[in-house]
Predict the 3D structure of the following.
Amino acid sequence: MSDPTPAVPVVLDLWCELQCPDCHHALTDVHALRARYGDRIEVRLRHFPLEKHKHAYAAAQAVEEAAAQGKNWPYIEAVLARTADLGRTGEPLLLEVAEELGLDAEEFDTALIDGRHMLIVDADQAEGKAIGVTGTPTYVIGGERLDGGRSQEGLRERIEEIADRLLAGQG
């Protein structure tokens, strides 16, 4: 008798940028989805820095450095909680958050200077453009793109409908 194969989590790609106030509000939905689905849903941040936000590209690179140091989501959430501060202070805030989380801020600074994470950010942005992402937040789940932008209303419910359908189809 064999053990049943564990279900593969449903992937929710969140096209986001850390200087975007709408992405800050999207965190409420991310928390609710994680609370409801636990490890049955995998939320992946995908970078889509917008030109209108001067520090978004550096912030995306900083997220990748946080991931390399093992604190991807804590870093994302800490910076998103301070989108207005990021707009005012830029890279010093990115280093400050790294220090607050016990990460190696010197390594963050070096990563921002040497651009070691630029390819990941560029690849995410290119993929986003290829699938029609024009703004943030944008969600992709089960091949369906849901644009957040100015109104998050009804998005979580739509994501839940798709996730429930996908999870039901695994059984």
